[in-house]
Amino acid sequence: MPIVIDRNIPAYSVLNAERIFVMDSERATSQDIRPIEIAILNLMPTKIETETQFMRLLSNSPLQVNVTLIHTESYRSKNTEAEYLERFYQPFEKVRDKHFDGMIVTGAPVEDMDFHDVAYWDELTKLFDWTKTNVTSTIFICWGAMAALYYFYDIPKYPLPRKLFGVFAHRKIHFDTPDPLMRGISDEFHICHSRHSTVREYDIRKDARLKILATSHRAGVAIASSLDHSQIFVLGHMEYDRDTLKKEYERDLAKGLPIEKPFCYFADRECTRINMNWSSTANLFYNNWLNFVYQTTPFKFEK
Description:
Elements: E1 3-4, H1 10-17, E2 22-23, H2 25-28, E3 36-41, H3 47-58, E4 65-71, H4 82-88, E5 89-91, H5 92-95, E6 100-105, H6 121-134, E7 135-141, H7 143-153, E8 158-172, E9 188-198, H8 201-205, E10 210-216, E11 220-226, E12 231-234, H9 244-254, H10 279-296
Parallel strand pairs: 1-2, 1-4, 3-4, 3-6, 4-5, 6-7, 7-12
Antiparallel strand pairs: 8-9, 8-10, 10-11, 11-12
Helix pairs in contact: 1-3
């Protein structure tokens, strides 16, 4: 089944060109099934790139997925035209009476700031509270994961001595009784990371309401969740395209920022060939998540 999005949004033509089955809302109304409702709170300045990455992953499922894009009202991105946000995004206040099978809260380039100093922190925490009653399962990504772990579980973030940047090997936890989110994923797999902060494994392990699903010797905790999977914390970026880290590397070089080559990413010294070894894990993880929320959410949300 397809992902359902606005025909005019840039991701529609991109995914359609990649032969991914997308459907506009007009055609979707004729489908006699209940689609999965997924909301994406996109906090990234690169809105179009980020939304396309997640839509690509959500489209790799036999289920029909309706996507609602959400933006903050207390802070408007300077990198995205207001007309674009008005056309394709909705403010939180407009959707707060709705229910969703799942939600994705992206990362944001505010890692060096104290959580309470972030311009939209009050609005974000209201949305965090709202997910507990109106969303079956929420995936928090990178800074979004650190923010949610701090808000819900009082787990602090810590600055790293240097940017964690590259593609890192990870290991699953609990091999004998695999978590439904990790079903089919290899014991060792890879995820991209690009961040200046981290959370500590000890802090997560001492909270009995949380469990760790995957860790990395170099990158630390990569995936954790609440016991009922209503909250999922992904510290890395499964959604990244092949050249996302390359663009970040070149951007930081151009700005004169101290940046090393992304770890285990380029396949040659010239930094032209990229070893993309995380995409299969990403597709399987998000497919597992969609399957989980599809089976967990009642046919009628109000139940």
